[in-house]
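Hey, can you fold this one?
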Amino acid sequence: MSNPIVQISNFSLKYGNKTVLTDLDWTISEGENWLLTGASGSGKTALLKAIAGLEKSTDDIVVVFNKAGVAKPVCQYIAQWYQFKNVEGIANFYYQQRYNVQQVKDTFTVNAELVHYGKEHNLSITKVEPILNALGFAALRNAQLIELSSGEHKKLQLVKALWLKPQLLLLDQPYTGLDSQSRQNLNNLLDELTNDGIQIILVSNEAEIPACINRFGEIVNGQLIEHFTFCTRSTIVIEERAIPEFLHEAPPSSSATLIKMVDININYGEKQVLKNVSWEIKAGEKWLLQGHNGSGKSTLLSLINGDHPQAYANEIYLFGNKRGSGESIWDIKQHIGLISPELHWYFDFNATVWQSIASGFFDSIGLYKEIGWHKRSQVDELIEYFGLMANKNDLLSQLPLGKQRLVLLARTVIKNPELLVLDEPCQGLDAHQTLQFNTLIDGLCNTNRTLIYVSHNDDQLPKNLSHQLLLSKGEVIQNLIYKQKKELESVI
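Sure. Predicted structure:
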């Protein structure tokens, strides 16, 4: 019989007044690699952190390492988010900072970060090269950390973990923000690692998993239930909920053409991020924006949102006005409902759920104004629609990431904007929450509302997309009516 490397007995965990895990038992033996699933907020992240020793000290969890093994006798937890710091060791960044060329030098380069990490853990820098190449990250060695997209930050996080080769590797949603090729390459790397005696516990909502996974567990009502095969729920039923009345009709479009970009070029020194990009979005169109990690999607959206200072050096028309004709950033934002990984990173986590949603009326990172009865009732309607009534007065920091994202999605639509910009909106959501949200988007977009939707996952898209823009290395390589794209794929 194999020796247990993790033994959990009668483990319970509370967050505030909420019991997350109750008398949980779990044994992980040598050679076992687990996929751990469960609804958002079921306790998956809490359990991984407890195993890694990042929660309160407990005698209920025992981890035993093989001191004679090839891999390092440590347990490494890779969080859903990557928190980087500036050169002074501070992580206090603001939302638009990555687009400000005067301030990107405030952080380390990727190469400097890797050198520091290698020295800290006594790792050979030559051993990281194959990992960088496999994840398509080698070309970013000279990039500043603050310049990286959310998907590129995830890759850096994974590069470090795979380079370290810990005996027990705990991966919390590692595919978040990764394009399809990167997800496949990661699975190949994980398979190689387990051949060296490394064991993994993987928390993921993805259907594609590495071949090395040989055990399957699900957290239900605070307990771990083992399955003997990989279970995917083919049918998800969501509760029928009427879209709040105030969202039934989109506001009148400010212009027949909401967005027009002509030969856009964005550079950071010698690095060109966007090259000769032209894009026109007419009122009522629903666009899917796609491209590999680092292809320029976030930068392109920042020009629309009013967040990028280089917009003034390019020919851009937003909501009927040429950029730089006297409009403020707030004049632009009043037309837009936005969600993005970066907005989530930099949001005020000391705000309550109610305050966070209400802040969408003012496009602020937190609520700093009183609002009247009419708007307050609209906030309450959305909280009810998203099933967040029990969390209404909770701080954002007290919620699991999936529920945090639902709160920010509610914030995105609260002012009933004419343009929705949804950049990876379903990151961190479970399958049920994803379907619920996309059902809402389909309902909202039955009107003349305009949509830009970014996603790497073709199985997590709303149904009403009409056009697609595909970027590669900062250039447009495909601009199609979306239905034509689907017809081409069916022929191929």
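The longest strand covers residues 4-15. Let me know if you want another pass with a different chain boundary.
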